Amino acid sequence: MTGTEVAVDPELAALFDKVLADWRAARPSAGATLDMDRTLWGRLTELGLTRLAREADWPTLAELLRAAARHAAPVPLAEHDALAGWALATAGIEADDQIRTLARLDSAGLDPAVPWASQADRIVGLWPADGSWFVADLAASEVMIVAGRDLAGAPRDRVSVDPVALRAAVEISAEVATALGLRGALVRAVQASGAIERIVDLCVRHVTERHQFGRPLARFQAVQHLVADAAAEATLLTAATAAAVALAAAYDSSQATLAELERAVAVARSVLGVSADVVVRNAHQVHGAIGTTLEHPLQELTRPVLAWRSDYGSVRHWDRRVAEIVASAGTDPWSALIGRIEHEGETR
């Protein structure tokens, strides 16, 4: 891993949080299902925040995704920009500001679980054919969509594409297709880290304000342990995703290899698998029954985390990948996980 992380402009980070916090303050409880908030999307588009994957660096994009996840914003920023937008830009396909999502089609033109497909304007299809990979930008009217929902209540739809609609596709390399999958896995870890950060904040606030037997919940040792364990997992996940984001930026600038990127993403996703379990379980224990109600913001954060941790590879898949990396390292497994550390011009 390279030690050349790009810091996010504090003013930009503050802007992201303010726009989303203002939206959140004026928004009622979401309920059991989520639909796209097109008013919020329009505001983000006006500010140029729906094209960051093509016009900004990875850390800035990651900060926006974290902020959106912290405020449980029902908009497809990751799908539209970080994935579909990047795929089109890499393939050299011009794109307008219509809302897009990415469908990872099989050879028959099917993807059974496409986020936001039923509410997007266009579907960017990635699919294999004859040993190659192709990308096409399709109008939603050109594909068949069967609406569905994921664990968080957000649209997760079955998409099938007639091969005739794919005739205008552009071929991409196998490495680009692999990199796109790793981007998807990474943005889910980034989003989850933002949501988990907010979950811990809610826990701290709840145990500080809520009293039981004449004293705050925070005074009970068992509660302290629950919150401390959740905070530790949140910190670990933030560190792992930050390292993977730095590697992704290095890969985009040709300063890191695809193998190095995969290693960093695998570690971040493996950490997410554990962190999601601990944080979600502990948070709901701390909040009790109130945290499961549709009116409470906790469930708007915990449900997406559980959905994201299984997207672009299951927990078992990424744990196994980390184990394979360690097993292939021989006598130096630690270096296999963290890679090269460059500090002040010296490689160690």
TrEMBL record:
Gene3D superfamilies for the chain: Butyryl-CoA Dehydrogenase, subunit A, domain 3 (1.20.140.10)
Which Pfam families does this UniProt record tie to the protein? Answer: Acyl-CoA_dh_1
Identify the EC number(s): 1.3.8.7
List UniProt keywords, sorted A-Z: FAD, Flavoprotein, Oxidoreductase
Domain Acyl-CoA dehydrogenase/oxidase C-terminal as annotated: residue spans: 185-307
User: In its keyword annotation, does this UniProt entry include Ribonucleoprotein?
Assistant: no
The protein's name in its UniProt record: Acyl-CoA dehydrogenase
* GO MF, one example: medium-chain fatty acyl-CoA dehydrogenase activity
So which residues are the signal peptide here? none
Which residue spans adopt a coiled-coil conformation according to this UniProt entry? none
Q: Does the keyword Transmembrane apply?
A: no
